[in-house]
């Protein structure tokens, strides 16, 4: 179904997938460097835990839209596979609609939470990075995921009309 997505959405998914991959590599490099520095020089990298946590947030938030477009989420395939094509389609619609509603609410609340964090000026413990930026980044990933879900739900109804 990924090939029928709007071109803009495909480009955003690709960019986010690449940023998620780069963040995953960054997590491995920072962790490896920290272990090396601790072992060889007995001097850890200051704030490495925060850096790895922030990169992990980027990985999760930015990988979701691509994972959805590839249908690589965990499903109850053994059960659903035995249903008729029409029933499988209905289950997919219900699942996508419920996920759209839940992720939409989560995204909205994350943006509100990030705004409240920005007002209070919360910063991370060691590096004193503004926490609201990380929350906005994660919320942006969830926003794109919400749009992907909405496109799939709309596509279902357009297909059933024609």
Notable characteristics:
5 helices, single chain, 162 residues, mainly alpha
How far is the first residue's CA from the last residue's CA? 17 Å
Overall tally of domains? 1
Proportion in β-strands: under 5%
Q: Name the helicity range.
A: over 70%
Average predicted confidence as pLDDT: 90
Largest sheet: none
Q: Which geometry do the CA atoms define?
A: elongated
The assigned structural class equals: mainly alpha
Radius of gyration: 20 Å
Low-confidence stretches: none
How many distinct helices?
5
Number of strand elements: 0
Note the run of SSEs as H and E.
Answer: HHHHH
Explain what the structure shows.
With 162 residues, the chain is mainly alpha-helical. It has one domain (2-161). It is 79% helix and 0% strand. The protein has helices spanning 7-41, 48-69, 77-80, 85-120, 131-161. The longest helix has 36 residues, at 85-120. It is found in: Cell inner membrane. This is Tripartite ATP-independent periplasmic transporter DctQ component.
């Amino acid at each position: 179904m990924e090939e029928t997505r709007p071109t803009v959405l495909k480009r955003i998914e690709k960019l986010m997938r690449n940023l998620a991959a780069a963040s995953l590599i960054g997590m491995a490099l920072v962790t490896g460097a920290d272990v090396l520095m601790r072992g060889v020089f007995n001097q850890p990298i200051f704030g490495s835990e925060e850096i790895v946590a922030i990169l992990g947030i980027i990985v999760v938030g930015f990988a979701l839209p691509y994972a959805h477009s590839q249908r690589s989420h965990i499903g109850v395939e053994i059960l659903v596979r035995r249903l008729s094509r029409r029933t499988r389609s209905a289950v997919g619609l219900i699942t996508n609609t419920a996920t759209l509603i839940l992720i939409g609410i989560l995204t909205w609340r994350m943006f509100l939470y990030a705004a409240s964090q920005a007002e209070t000026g919360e910063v991370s413990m060691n590096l004193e990075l503004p926490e609201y930026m990380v929350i906005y980044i994660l919320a942006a990933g969830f926003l794109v995921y919400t749009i992907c879900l909405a496109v799939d739900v709309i596509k279902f109804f357009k297909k059933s009309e024609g």
